[in-house]
TrEMBL record:
<keyword id="KW-0406">Ion transport</keyword>
<keyword id="KW-1133">Transmembrane helix</keyword>
<feature type="transmembrane region" description="Helical">
    <location>
        <begin position="453"/>
        <end position="477"/>
    </location>
</feature>
<dbReference type="Pfam" id="PF01496">
    <property type="entry name" value="V_ATPase_I"/>
</dbReference>
<protein>
    <recommendedName>
        <fullName>V-type proton ATPase subunit a</fullName>
    </recommendedName>
</protein>
<keyword id="KW-0472">Membrane</keyword>
<dbReference type="GO" id="GO:0051117">
    <property type="term" value="F:ATPase binding"/>
</dbReference>
<dbReference type="GO" id="GO:0007035">
    <property type="term" value="P:vacuolar acidification"/>
</dbReference>
<dbReference type="GO" id="GO:0046961">
    <property type="term" value="F:proton-transporting ATPase activity, rotational mechanism"/>
</dbReference>
<keyword id="KW-0175">Coiled coil</keyword>
<feature type="transmembrane region" description="Helical">
    <location>
        <begin position="664"/>
        <end position="687"/>
    </location>
</feature>
<dbReference type="GO" id="GO:0000329">
    <property type="term" value="C:fungal-type vacuole membrane"/>
</dbReference>
<dbReference type="GO" id="GO:0000220">
    <property type="term" value="C:vacuolar proton-transporting V-type ATPase, V0 domain"/>
</dbReference>
<feature type="transmembrane region" description="Helical">
    <location>
        <begin position="606"/>
        <end position="629"/>
    </location>
</feature>
<comment type="function">
    <text>Essential component of the vacuolar proton pump (V-ATPase), a multimeric enzyme that catalyzes the translocation of protons across the membranes. Required for assembly and activity of the V-ATPase.</text>
</comment>
<feature type="transmembrane region" description="Helical">
    <location>
        <begin position="826"/>
        <end position="851"/>
    </location>
</feature>
<keyword id="KW-0813">Transport</keyword>
Length: 901
């Protein structure tokens, strides 16, 4: 079982590496390919900016920034990237050591050349991209200028037609703001009446055309430009209040949106013309327009000047488009060269940065010119790691071998379970609650069966289970294509991650649905019924079926048509939930025995497991036996009323020895014995373990140690002989057991420094008061939880009943109603049946499968986390996180796909 490392976490060893500085990079790179070593930080007291390889990590940080910039420009220009994808690199960066010797990392000179090339590309692309963006901005300005010229021309053409009608030459008085002189300042200072007021008076004296003539015919200046449509109202209000109405405005909307060359966003803008008199007011208008991100363009009211301006703008656009096209061709050509290699560069830089970041955890020995590293490693992989490091030494052509020593330690190793894509999803259920302590029984293994089975008891329906199974099967068959999807939705990503859990939940739901004889709340007549209905009865008459046999498997479909079907289903499922709950808790309790036996903790076996086992089985085990016995007795044949088990259990505590409705002969004596056993187990569980630990601590003190932890420290330092080590180990029990004192030729200096460093991780000194308080809390919790947890399993019955009734109501309100009420109405009936079927199917998937399925899954999760795992699971470990290129590239791939939430 240790080879699989799924029932119990893998055996871990603390390994010390002495790596020569010349080959340190190659050795760490190979260890990253293997992905088996979780390195410890040997420089905890050193600032991160003062470590040995911070210069290299900063260099690769800068290179990653350059690559991100290049990738953004490539995406902006829509240049296809050659997919030397992370998937290929991930497949090559596996834990399999086959071909590892031929998987040579790039040399330092090659990496330096890559960094240099990346930097040059970034400079060139940035220059061309900035030039291209500037040209785009200039093009956008020219296009807007041309649009303004064309838009304002309609306004001045209308003005010209008015002049012709009135024989006026007022156009000569309209001047550009750039032509304003001191005379206009005098006019502005002498003007007391707003233009809008003048417009109003003109309208009273003449008509609308005369009004516009009066406004435009006066000695005024104007500005024109563009502004976002949604800001024009704001501009109008600000100008009105700032100029006190001394202005005349007009606008023309631009039909096509204008794209911002910097952000790529599209904005709808409009052309405006503002008339006012005086240089001060014109200057004020300019500042207000610019504050609202408007653009101003020069427009002449004179037609000949206008034609010249329009021609100049068109000529500039033609020249600019030619330059723009040539610039983009050069930029795209450069980007295509980069796109061929950028994925490979990103992967190599990611791996190289990870190598130097890991080397920053190592300690440098200047006298030996080597790096000293420590890390956790699965014991079974030690030989493979040594072999890979020897291959690196031979490949580099050096005579200095990498030294690998296994060192003893009192530190707690990390927890590592070897999982695959099927078991990893179930393991994540346990890890979400807590990481298993080192080498304790893994609850994730039985959860592969129990989690979907508990779900299926609550969700049991053959049809609903098939829909769930079909959806999960699709995710499983399409898992490779879905894994490459980018920006997956959070809920969909959760379903994809747990696709194998959903698959098992669907399979088990189909099984329990078959046992319940439920198919979308309808019964299936697969076998012959064991009940026979009488013939010759009248309509409305109450009849009783007679039993003619036994239905081969599952619940007889005759119960579905019976008046007391709900009463029967409630009784059956309620007792079934108690049985399943007891079995689930009972086998979980056995894992505590397995743990105690493995850790050689006799105290926990005698003081915790045995009284807990007797307490649970003397009460609830007895209840389960009576449930099965009650089912097996033909009470009708005996002409007796079946006794109530609930009353029996209550009276067992309130009136020991007294039985109102006997279930069997001698029941009172049996219940008194079982109750006495349960009562004895309480002080047994409460007192034995604290007193036994106190006695063992006293024994350790008599052997000459301060307490049992003093003996543990001496054993770790190697100062105890085998006899004393064995005696202290026996004294320590589970909580204070001593580790092996074997050393692998470590020097005294190394060992001494190691012990001093690790001394702070020894358990706290033994305190009888603390142990007693903890045991009191544990005993109270166990006794109360035995009752509450058993009652908690009644949720299996409650949710199963609710699911069945909701499914029946949905069927009767939709499909059954369509078949009975609209089956004989021709085309209308067909349409109604089709519509109600769609309604039934949508509600079935949305409510019964998705919502009810989620509810049942959460309840199953609670039953495992609380009711079952509390019987044995400590969950005080920490995750094994080795230095692995496979894991690093997988996370990088998720970041690229946008699937990290």
């Amino acid at each position: 079982m240790s080879d699989e490392s799924i029932f119990r976490s893998a055996d871990m060893i603390l390994v010390q590496f002495y790596i020569a500085s010349e080959i340190s990079r190659d050795c760490v790179s190979v260890l990253g390919e293997i992905g088996d070593v979780q390195f410890r930080d040997m420089n905890k007291n050193v600032n991160s900016f003062q470590r040995s390889f911070v210069k290299e990590t900063r260099k690769f940080d800068d290179t990653e920034r350059q690559l991100r910039y290049l990738e953004s420009v490539i995406a902006k220009q829509q240049v296809p990237i050659t997919t030397t994808s992370y998937d290929d690199m991930i497949r090559s960066s596996t834990r399999d050591l086959e071909g590892l010797a031929n998987r040579n990392p790039p040399t330092t000179s090659q990496m330096d050349a890559m960094v240099e090339v990346t930097g040059k590309y970034e400079v060139n692309v940035r220059q061309m991209a900035d030039t291209y963006d500037d040209l785009l901005s200039r093009q956008s300005d020219l296009l807007e200028h041309r649009t303004v010229l064309q838009g304002t021309r309609t306004f001045f053409d209308a003005r010209l037609s008015l002049e012709v009608q009135h024989g006026n030459s007022g156009m000569n008085h309209i001047r550009l703001s750039s032509d304003v002189d001191e005379e206009s300042i005098m006019i502005e200072e002498s003007s007391d009446q707003p233009l809008m007021s003048q417009d109003a008076e003109s309208m009273n004296n003449d008509n609308a055309n005369n009004s516009e003539m009066n406004i435009l015919g006066s000695n005024m200046s104007f500005i024109s430009g563009t502004i976002d449509t949604d800001r024009f109202i704001t501009l109008e209000k600000i100008l009105w209040r700032s100029l006190r109405g001394n202005l005349y405005m007009n606008k023309v909307p631009i039909d096509e949106p204008i794209t911002d060359p910097k952000t790529g966003e599209e904005h709808y803008r409009c052309i405006f013309v503002i008339f006012t008199h005086g240089v001060r007011l014109i200057g004020r208008c300019r500042k207000i327009v610019e504050s609202l991100e408007g653009k101003l363009f020069e427009v002449s009211p004179d037609y000949s000047v206008y034609r010249r301006q329009l021609s100049e703008v068109n000529d500039k656009l033609m020249d600019l488009n030619s330059v723009l096209e040539h610039t983009r061709e050069r930029l795209v050509l450069e980007l295509k060269e980069i796109a061929l290699e950028i994925e490979r560069w990103k992967i190599q830089i990611t791996k190289e940065k990870a190598v130097y970041s890991t080397m920053n955890l190592f300690d440098y020995d200047p006298t030996r010119r080597c790096l000293i590293a420590e890390g956790w490693l699965p014991k079974d992989d030690l030989s493979a790691v040594k072999s890979a490091l020897r291959d690196v030494t031979e490949r580099c052509g050096t005579d200095i071998n990498t030294v690998v020593n296994v060192i003893p330690t009192n530190r707690t190793p990390p927890t590592f379970f070897r999982t695959n894509k099927f078991t990893s999803a179930f393991q994540s259920i346990v890890d979400a609650y807590g990481i298993a302590s080192y080498q304790e029984v893994n609850p994730g293994l039985p959860a592969i069966v129990t989690f979907p089975f508990m779900f299926a008891i609550m969700f049991g329906d053959l049809g609903h289970g098939f829909l769930l199974f079909l959806a999960a099967l699709t995710l499983v068959l399409k898992e490779k294509s879905i894994a490459r999807m980018k920006n997956r939705e959070e809920i969909f990503d959760m379903a994809y991650t747990g696709r194998y859990i959903l698959l098992m939940m669907g399979l088990f739901s189909m099984y329990t649905g078959f046992m319940y004889n439920d198919l979308f709340s309808r019964s299936m007549t697969i076998f012959k019924s064991g009940w026979k209905w009488p013939s010759g009865f009248k309509e409305g008459e109450s009849i009783t079926a007679t039993q003619s046999g036994v239905y081969p498997i599952g619940i007889d479909y005759a119960w579905h048509a019976a008046e007391n079907s709900l009463l029967f289903a409630n009784s059956y499922k309620m007792k079934l939930s108690i049985l399943m709950g007891f079995i689930h808790m009972s086998y979980s309790l056995q894992f505590s025995l397995v743990n105690s036996w493995f850790f050689k903790s006799r105290i926990d076996i005698i003081g915790t497991y045995i009284p807990g086992f007797l307490f649970l089985h003397s009460i609830f085990g007895y209840l389960c036996v009576t449930i099965i016995y009650k089912w097996s007795v033909d009470w009708i044949g005996k002409d007796k009323v079946a006794p109530s088990l609930l009353n029996m259990l209550i009276n067992m505590f309130l009136s020991p020895g007294h039985v109102d409705e006997p279930l069997y002969a001698g029941q009172g004596i049996v219940q008194v014995i079982l109750l006495s056993i349960a009562l004895v187990c309480v002080p047994w569980m409460l007192l034995y373990k604290p007193l036994a630990l106190k006695r063992q601590n006293d024994v350790a003190i008599r052997l000459g140690y301060i307490n049992v932890q003093g003996g543990a420290a001496a054993a770790a330092a190697g100062t105890l002989d085998s006899g004393n080590s064995g005696s202290i180990s026996q004294v320590g029990g589970d909580d204070y057991s001593l580790l092996s004192t074997a050393t692998d030729n470590l020097s005294a200096a190394t060992m001494t420094s190691f012990i001093i460093e690790d001394y702070d991780e020894l358990p706290e000194p033994f305190n009888f008061g603390d142990v007693m308080v903890n045991q009191v809390i544990f005993t109270i919790e166990f006794c109360l939880n035995s009752v509450s947890h058993t009652a908690s399993y009644l949720r299996l019955w409650a949710l199963s009943l609710a699911h069945n009734q909701l499914s029946a109501v949905l069927w009767s309100m939709t499909l059954q109603n369509s078949f009975t009420s609209f089956s004989k109405r021709g085309v209308l009936g067909c349409f109604v049946v089709f519509f109600l079927f769609g309604m039934w199917f949508v509600l079935t998937v949305a409510v019964l499968v998705c919502m009810e399925g989620t509810s049942a899954m959460l309840h199953s999760l609670r039953l495992h986390w609380v009711e079952a795992m509390s019987k044995h699971f400590k969950g005080e470990g920490y995750q094994y996180e080795p230095f692995s290129f496979h894991d690093i590239l997988t996370i990088k791939q998720d970041e690229v796909n946008g699937n990290i939430q």
